[in-house]
Amino acid sequence: MALIALGVSGGIGAYKAVEIARGLxxxxxxxxxxxxxxxxxxxxxxxxxxxxxxxxxxxxxxxGANSDIEHIxxxxxxxxxVVAPATANVIGKFAxxxxxxxxxxxxxxxxxxxxxxxxxxxxxxxxxxVRANLTTLAARGVRFVDPGDGYLACGWIGKGRLAExxxxxxxxxxxxxxxxxxxxxxxxxxxxxxxxxxxxxxxxGNRSSGRMGYALAAEAARxxxxxxxxxxxxxxxxxxxVEVIRVRSASEMQAAVNAHLSSADLLVMxxxxxxxxPDQRTDxxxxxxxxxxxxxxxxxxxxxxxxxxxxxxANRPVLIxxxxxxxxxxxxxxxxxxxxxxxxIVANDISRADTGFDSETNAVTILTATGDExxxxxxxxxxxxxxxxxxxxxxxxxxxxxx
Length: 403
Ligand code: CTP
Prior knowledge:
Blueprint: E1 3-8, H1 16-26, E2 30-35, H2 45-52, H3 70-77, E3 80-86, H4 88-96, H5 102-109, E4 114-118, H6 122-126, H7 128-139, E5 143-144, E6 148-151, E7 157-161, H8 165-176, E8 186-191, E9 196-197, E10 203-204, H9 211-222, E11 226-231, E12 243-246, H10 250-260, E13 266-269, E14 276-278, E15 297-299, H11 303-311, E16 318-325, H12 329-339, E17 344-349, E18 361-368, E19 371-379, H13 380-394
Parallel strand pairs: 1-2, 1-3, 3-4, 4-5, 8-11, 8-13, 11-12, 13-16, 16-17
Antiparallel strand pairs: 6-7, 9-10, 14-15, 17-18, 18-19
Helix pairs in contact: 1-2, 1-8, 3-5, 4-7, 9-13
The site of cytidine-5'-triphosphate has 16 residues, from α11 and β16.
């Protein structure tokens, strides 16, 4: 566990940094908060002091012995510098080596990795000057947690909102985590529903939230895998450290999966892929008439089964599917394991309120060629960890690299 310097600069998201400090502590890290002058206009240092149980550094030249060399001491002691929110001003100062306060001096003085969570107005974020500064910092190895879309304090809706505290905490933890059990592996994870368009305004969808797939993607990234998350329409913020490909329909999802299948060590089909799609999509809007409306639905490609066929007798990628059942999940899951030539089917009973589509928790049975294992009700993150523990055993060893 590390000592983390948490730099808070002056944005409306500064209040979220309190939650970030808390999250880092929950994961066992020690946090030293540093607030810029403008950050203190949004939140008081006492809040951070109460949480971190450390003096909050607010001034490079505060009264007291050796305060001027404090940043050098902290620079050596920390395992990570996190800046959240990172304003355009701080980003600019870091990019240009300006050291006019404690935080910017600390950046120059430390050799610890740096993680920044930018937050600002959409136009500022898109401004060439800010883009250039971000590029400079990225080239120097600074890592970023991308800002999200949403309502901004300035009244705009757009990109620029500070990422969710949990995303920042996860990204920080991933930087500090020891090399994971999936290091050197590539996991392709699908998540969420698919939308099959009927016309320009209507579609056939399902109630999948994407939670299980997003939890699996986050867990695989935490374990060091390169993760490609292929997501159908979902409201969830993507986990940090994963590459996100957004798709809408089953056929778009299949195209994205196929494009990455050859690099995948693991394909996890957690998406609730539509089994049927309208045989044709009307370009405009279908106007109503007095009579009934008929729709002809045709089968979508079965992405998992096609991947099973394409893999043939090869042992890569390991294929994991889900079976959402309201009947006998184990019996039906086992049939899917065979029919789709998968290595694992995670069967869950969607008829219970505390499991399945929209819930935070799940209770599943993991089916493999060697047997069934019932996993009682747990959070989807915990279930994701248990699934990946089992999946790791199915991976063939990483080929030794020649020297
Ligand atoms: N799947 C897929 N392509 C489809 C449909 C499903 O890859 N067109 C995948 C899903 O992502 C899941 C698994 O196959 O991993 C099980 O889906 P499916 O066979 O459709 O079963 P259920 O959705 O559980 O329901 P049903 O028995 O009604 O088919």
